Amino acid sequence: MFVFLKLLKIFLIYAMLPIIVISCIYIDFKLFKFDHIGELSLTEISQEITVFIICVIYFLLAKYSRNFNSLSILIFGFFATILVREFDYVFDMMHHGSWVFSALMVAIICIFFACKSFKILVKELDEYIKTQSFYLMLCGIVCVFVFSRVFGSTKFWDEFLLLSDAKMVKNIVQEGIELFGYLLCLMSSFLFKIEKFSQN
User: Fold this and answer.
1) d(CA 79, CA 140)
2) CB-hemisphere CA count at 13 Å for 185?
3) Residue 38, C-beta contacts closer than 8 angstroms, at least 6 positions apart
4) Could you tell me if 48 and 66 are in contact, meaning their C-beta atoms sit under 8 angstroms apart?
5) Nearest-angstrom CA–CA distance, 20 and 176
6) CB atoms within 10 A of CB 28
7) Is the pLDDT of residue 200 over 60?
8) For a disulfide at 124, which of 13, 46, 71, 106, Cβ 3.0-4.6 Å?
9) How far apart are CA 17 and CA 26, in angstroms?
10) DSSP-derived secondary structure for the chain
11) pLDDT tens by residue, 123-161
12) Mean pLDDT for the chain?
């Protein structure tokens, strides 16, 4: 009986993710009356908060965990780079496209520190691939970088809708899928943190 309750709990936790996404989009359009999902929308802000929490989790893992330090630095760097990209509109206030230099700097520094012990990093990656959290992280990354771009393509929606509608639908779909993907990555991060800290 306990295993069924555990499965139900896991199902309900993951079922909340799409509900969060739809709620953010609904609030953006119905409550805030936005005509698209922009940089200051609840959906975008939720993406940024989610990526920030992922960064914090991997920063703490890199700092306090005895295992997976190099891997945690690498994953932290990956999501810190994404976070810089999510805040591109802030960097654009200084100079258009300046986020690229900040993102490159974060990426290079994190790759350097992660690869200082390259053999350990390879070993940690090999162990990480065997965890449940890896596959959840992979699903999240595929959602953010592949599915959201393909399914959220204006050319795709132009085939079915008027041009003005297609742009709005493309925006909703792409940003919604990105938030869903980031939430999957966040769940993976929590899972990985629980798995690794229980070993320490």
Assistant:
1) 12
2) 30
3) 44
4) no
5) 10
6) 25
7) no
8) 71
9) 14
10) -HHHHHHHHHHHHHHHHHHHHHHHHHIIIIIS--SS--TTSHHHHHHHHHHHHHHHHHHHHHHH-SS-HHHHHHHHHHHHHHHHHHTHHHHHHHSTTTHHHHHHHHHHHHHHHHHTTHHHHHHHHHHHTTSHHHHHHHHHHHIIIIIHHHHT-HHHHHTTS-HHHHHHHHHHHHHHHHHHHHHHHHHHHHHHHHHHHHH-
11) 999 999 999 999 999 999 999 999 999 988 888 888 787
12) 92
Q: Which residue has the tokens 């953006």?
A: 28
Residue 196 corresponds to which tokens in the numbers above? Answer: 């690794």
How many angstroms from the chain centroid is the CA of residue 200?
A: 26
The tokens for 145 are 């970088």
Q: Which residues of 1-23 are buried (b: 16+ CB within 10 A; e: fewer)?
A: eeeeeeeeeeeeeeeebeeebee
CA quadruple 94, 28, 157, 148: dihedral sign: positive
Percent of the chain clearing pLDDT 90 (strictly above): 76
